[in-house]
C-alpha cells in the first residue's frame, strides 16, 4: 500500500496549533502553508459565476488501517487542540471494533450515558421522537450548566450528524467528538467551552440509521424538509435552531462520487441562496476554504467543492449539485443567519486495494478533521460570528420594513437568476385567512416567524429576522411555498 504523504503522528495537531499556524496566525495562514486557496472570502463578490480552480489533487494512498485504528483509540489532537482524546474514556462501538463496523443505536445510548456520567460539562435532552418511537438526542457541552436562554444569548455551534441514515461516518466522528470535548482538560478545550456551547444531534435520523436508508421511516429525505417541516426529525432541528440560535451549523453527510472527476476525500459547501446575508455567506466560505480544507488536507486527504466536477488540472468542468434550494439545511440555516456548512466524505473505495475497514476509517477520519476545522473557526472568530449573525438579523428586519432590497426566488451565488425571478420591490407583509393560518401555524412557529391577527385577517410582517424565509414560505412565486398568501405592498 502506498504511504500517506504526511505521517499520522505529526498531523493530529490540526486545530489551533503552531505547527499549522492556527494558534498564532489563524487557519488562513495554515491554508497558505498547505497550498489551499488563499483568496479571502471577503473578496468574493456576488454572484460568483463559476467554481474556482483547485490544484489537481495528489492522491497519496489509502490510510494505514492499523495507524488509524490506533488513532481512534489512543490518540487525539495535540494538547493545544480542543477535544484531546482521553485515554481512559469510553469507546464507541466503532472504536472498540477498530473501525470494522459502525456503532449501533444501542451502543450509542450506552456510550452517551457513560460520557454523561463522567463529565459535568454534558447534558443530554430529548429533542423529539421519530415515527417509530426512537428518541432524537440533543447533547449540550459547555463549561457549566447553561439554560436554553443563556445559550441563545451567547456563542454556540450546532453539529447535525447523519441526516441520511445510510451515511454513518459523520455520526461516528460526532460521537467521538462529544466524548473528547466532555473529558478533555487541555487549555484549548477549556477555552472553547468556557465561552461557547457545543450542541450535537449525534443521530439526526435514527429510523434511517436503523434501516440503513437515506430517508426516514416514511421514506422522506429530511434534508429536503427544512422549509416545510413535515418530518419529526426536521421539526426537531428547527426547534433547536429557533431556541438556541447557533451561529454555526455543521451538517455531516457522505457522497458517492465519480472516479477522477468527483472523488475528493471530503467536499464541503456553504449556503448559496442569494437571500443569505453576504457577510454570513463570506464566513461560511471562509469556514470551508480557510478552516475545513487545511484541517483535512493536513493528513494528505483531498478536498473540493460539493457538486463540482474537476478536470485533471483542477479546473471545474461541470456542476452536478449544490444550488440555492431553500429546503436544504445549509441554505435554510443561512437564511436563518447561521453560518451553515455541508460536509460530505467520500463513500467510494479510494482504490482497488482499500479494504472495507480502511474505507470506513478514512471516511470517519476526514469527518473528524472537518469538525476540528469548524471548532477552530468558532474558537478563533467567536466575536465575529456573534456580531455578524446578529447584524444579519437586524439588517433583515430593516430590509423587510423598507422593502427596498431585491428578493430572489431563484439564483445562487454562482448562478444569476432570470429577471422574472427577482422582486425589486418586495412586499412589506403577507396576509392570509384564519383557515390558511391553521395550515401553516406550526411551521411558521417552528421557523420563528411571528404574525398578528385582527378579526379574520392574519398578517405576517416582513419586518422581522425571518424576512429571508417568509416569501419562500408564503409567496406564490416561490418554488416550494406552503401556501399563496396575499402580498401587501409597502407604503
Automatic annotation (TrEMBL):
Stretches for region Disordered: 32-61, 75-102
Source superkingdom: Bacteria
InterPro entries, per the entry: Peptidase_M14
Residues in Peptidase M14 domain copies: 101-346
One CC-aspect GO term: extracellular space
Gene3D superfamilies on file: Zn peptidases (3.40.630.10)
Biological processes annotated in GO: proteolysis
Signal peptide: 1-30
Zinc among keywords: yes
PANTHER family linked: PROTEASE FAMILY M14 CARBOXYPEPTIDASE A,B, SLL0236 PROTEIN
Family statement drawn from the similarity comment of this UniProt entry: Belongs to the peptidase M14 family.
Protein name listed in UniProt: Zinc carboxypeptidase
Amino acid at each position: 500500500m502506498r504511504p500517506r504523504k504526511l505521517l499520522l503522528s505529526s498531523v493530529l495537531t490540526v486545530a489551533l496549533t503552531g505547527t499549522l499556524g492556527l494558534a498564532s496566525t489563524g487557519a488562513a495562514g495554515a491554508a497558505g502553508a498547505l497550498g489551499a486557496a488563499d483568496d479571502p472570502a471577503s473578496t468574493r463578490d456576488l454572484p460568483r459565476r463559476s467554481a474556482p480552480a483547485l490544484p489537481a489533487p495528489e492522491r497519496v494512498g489509502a490510510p494505514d488501517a492499523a495507524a488509524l485504528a490506533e488513532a481512534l483509540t489512543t490518540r487525539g489532537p495535540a494538547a493545544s487542540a480542543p477535544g484531546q482524546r482521553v485515554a481512559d474514556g469510553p469507546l464507541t462501538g466503532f472504536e472498540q471494533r477498530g473501525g470494522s463496523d459502525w456503532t449501533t443505536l444501542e451502543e450509542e445510548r450506552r456510550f452517551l450515558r457513560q460520557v454523561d456520567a463522567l463529565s459535568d460539562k454534558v447534558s443530554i435532552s430529548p429533542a423529539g421522537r421519530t415515527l417509530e418511537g426512537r428518541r432524537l438526542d440533543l447533547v449540550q457541552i459547555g463549561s457549566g450548566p447553561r439554560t436554553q436562554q443563556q445559550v441563545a444569548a451567547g456563542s454556540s455551534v450546532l453539529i447535525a450528524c447523519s441526516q441520511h441514515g445510510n451515511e454513518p461516518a459523520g455520526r461516528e466522528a460526532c460521537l467521538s467528538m462529544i466524548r473528547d470535548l466532555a473529558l478533555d482538560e487541555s487549555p484549548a478545550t477549556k477555552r472553547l467551552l468556557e465561552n461557547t456551547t457545543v450542541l450535537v444531534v449525534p443521530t439526526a435520523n435514527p429510523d434511517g440509521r436503523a434501516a440503513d436508508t437515506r430517508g426516514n421511516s416514511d421514506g422522506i429525505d429530511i434534508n429536503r424538509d427544512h422549509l416545510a417541516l413535515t418530518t419529526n426529525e426536521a421539526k426537531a432541528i428547527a426547534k433547536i435552531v429557533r431556541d438556541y440560535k447557533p451561529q454555526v451549523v455543521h451538517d455531516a453527510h457522505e457522497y458517492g462520487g465519480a472516479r477522477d472527476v468527483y472523488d475528493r476525500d471530503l467536499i464541503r459547501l456553504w449556503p448559496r441562496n442569494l437571500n443569505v446575508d453576504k457577510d454570513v455567506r463570506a464566513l461560511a466560505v471562509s469556514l470551508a476554504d480557510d478552516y475545513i480544507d487545511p484541517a483535512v488536507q493536513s493528513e494528505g486527504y483531498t478536498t473540493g467543492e460539493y457538486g463540482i466536477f474537476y478536470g485533471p488540472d483542477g479546473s471545474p468542468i461541470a456542476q452536478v449539485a449544490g444550488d440555492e434550494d431553500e429546503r436544504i439545511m445549509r441554505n435554510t440555516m443561512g437564511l436563518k443567519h447561521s453560518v451553515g456548512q455541508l460536509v460530505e466524505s467520500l463513500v467510494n473505495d479510494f482504490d482497488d486495494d482499500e479494504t472495507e475497514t480502511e474505507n470506513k476509517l478514512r471516511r470517519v477520519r476526514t469527518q473528524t478533521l472537518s469538525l476540528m476545522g469548524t471548532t477552530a473557526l468558532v474558537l478563533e472568530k467567536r466575536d465575529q460570528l456573534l456580531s455578524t449573525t446578529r447584524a444579519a438579523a437586524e439588517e433583515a428586519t430593516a430590509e423587510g420594513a423598507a422593502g427596498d432590497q431585491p428578493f430572489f426566488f431563484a439564483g445562487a451565488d454562482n448562478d444569476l437568476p432570470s429577471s422574472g425571478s427577482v422582486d425589486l420591490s418586495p412586499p412589506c407583509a403577507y396576509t392570509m385567512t384564519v383557515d390558511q393560518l391553521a395550515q401553516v401555524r406550526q411551521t411558521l412557529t417552528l421557523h420563528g416567524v411571528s404574525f398578528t391577527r385582527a378579526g379574520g385577517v392574519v398578517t405576517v410582517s416582513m419586518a422581522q429576522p425571518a424576512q429571508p424565509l417568509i416569501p419562500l414560505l408564503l409567496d406564490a412565486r416561490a418554488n416550494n411555498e406552503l401556501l399563496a398568501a396575499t402580498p401587501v405592498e409597502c407604503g
